[in-house]
From TrEMBL:
Whole-protein coverage range: 251 to 572 of 572
Keyword Methyltransferase: no
Organism for this UniProt entry: Paucilactobacillus nenjiangensis
Active site: 254
Gene of this entry: ptsP
Binding site for phosphoenolpyruvate: 48, 84, 206-207, 217
Protein known as: Phosphoenolpyruvate-protein phosphotransferase
Amino acid sequence: EQAEWKSLKDAKTVSADGKHFDIAANVGTPDDLDGVLDNGGEAIGLFRSEFLYMNSSELPTEDEQFEAYKKVAEGMNGKQVVVRTMDIGGDKHLPYLPLPEEMNPFLGYRAIRISLSQQDIFRTQLRALLRASNYGKIAIMFPMIATVNEFKQARAIYDEERQKMIDAGQPVADNIEVGMMMEIPAAVIIADKLAKYADFFSIGTNDLIQYTFAADRGNEHVSYLYQPYNPSLLRLIKQVIDTAHAEGKWAGMCGEMAGDQIAVPILMGLGLDEFSMSATSMLQTRSLMKRLNTADVKTLADKALELETNEEVQKLVEDSCK
Ligand code: PEP
Ligand code: MG
C-alpha cells in the first residue's frame, strides 16, 4: 500500500474516470515545505500565518513576514500558496497583543475581527503578501468571515494597499486571488452573495462543525457532537460548493475533514474542487480518488444528503467504497 502511494507522488490527482481534483497541503511554517513537495502536493491550500505572530516577542515586521511568504512562494515553484491572514484569538494568544478577557473566546474577538479593528496589523500583513506575490503564486484568504460587509471591508483594505504600492511604482502580481474561509454558518447561508465578491471559498470544517453544532471543538464532554458526516453539515458544504460554482468560482476545504477517507468520496460527489490536508494524508487520498468514479460518488453524495445521522452516512460510505 505504502509503495503504491509513493508511486503517485508525481501523478495528477484524478478519479477513475479522469476528473481532476487538486490535492493541497495545510502548513504551519515554511519548514513544512519539504513535506509538501515530498508528498506530491499540487498547492498549499492553507498556509497558517499564525506562526509568524506566535514565535515572536513582538509583532512581526513587514520585512520578516515578506521573507517568510517569499520563501514559501518560491519553494512551491509557481504552484498556488493560499496564505490565510492572521487567525489569532480564540485559543491563540500573543503575549505582546493585549486581547480582552472573554467569557467565550471562540465567539469573541479573533481573526478578521481583530484585523478589521486593528488595521495597522492587517495592512502590514497585506503589504508583505503583496510584495511576496512577485515570487510565486500567492492567494490571500480571510478567516472567520461572517458577513458580506466584513468581506467587502477586508477586500477594500487589500485593494487600497495594493493601489498604494502600484502608485509608488512597486511591482505586485496582477493575478492574486482573494478568497475567504467558510467556517461560520451565517456565511454559508449567504454564500450566494459572498460568491460575488470572493474569488474562492475554502471550507474550514474544524470551526464550521464547532459553530454548526454549538459544541466547543476542544471540549471532551461534547466531543460526540463532532459529526463531520452529519447530513446537516453535508448540506452546508453542498451549498458552499454550489454557490461558488454558480459564480464561476472554486471551492476547497482546508479543515481536517478534507483528508478524512470516509468524507473524501462524498466531497468528490458534491463537486469539491480542492482538498487541502496535512501533507502525510495526501498520497493516500490521491490513491483513494483514483479508485472512485465520479458518477458513483455523485450517487453516494445524493444518498448521504437524504440520510438522518452521522452514523448512517459513515455506514453508507463504508458499505459502498470497500
Ligand atoms: C478550520 O477551522 O477548519 C481551519 C482550517 O482553521 P483552524 O483549524 O486553523 O481554525
Ligand atoms: Mg478555523
